[in-house]
Amino acid sequence: MISLIVNGERHELDVSEETPLLWVLRDSLGLTGTKFACGVAACGSCTVHVEGRAVRACVLPVRAVLGKSVTTIEGLARDAAHPLLRAWVEEDVPQCGYCQPGMLMAAAALLTQHPDPSDADIDASVTNICRCGAYARIRRAIHRAAKA
Prior knowledge:
Blueprint: E1 2-6, E2 9-13, H1 21-28, E3 47-50, E4 53-56, E5 69-71, H2 73-76, H3 83-90, H4 100-113, H5 119-125, H6 135-147
Parallel strand pairs: 1-5
Antiparallel strand pairs: 1-2, 3-4, 3-5
Helix pairs in contact: 3-6
């Protein structure tokens, strides 16, 4: 048995400590907002926060987060008034939407570290892949949220 703190709630789970965090979130906790795409930490669809830092959950063994606070898109989205969520809608960011949870999590971590990021800060920190190519709108939404 392991104990995890996800979105502010403690969970006792019977999973191997080597299981990737992504699968514990999706399969054991039913938090399907965190997406599986590449499986090698390249695309960012699986981005979550561990202690406020953006990490790729598809390659992170759950043992690495024991005793640490994990936040998923479900935790971020609890507050529909969150500045990033509002900015995403106002800038019409989502197209297919598959990368958006990870993109939002990466952007939220960036804004925590850099409340007023430059374009270079955004490009360096939000390295998630969007197959729809909504990067310009994503950048505008991050700047909008930073001002909110």
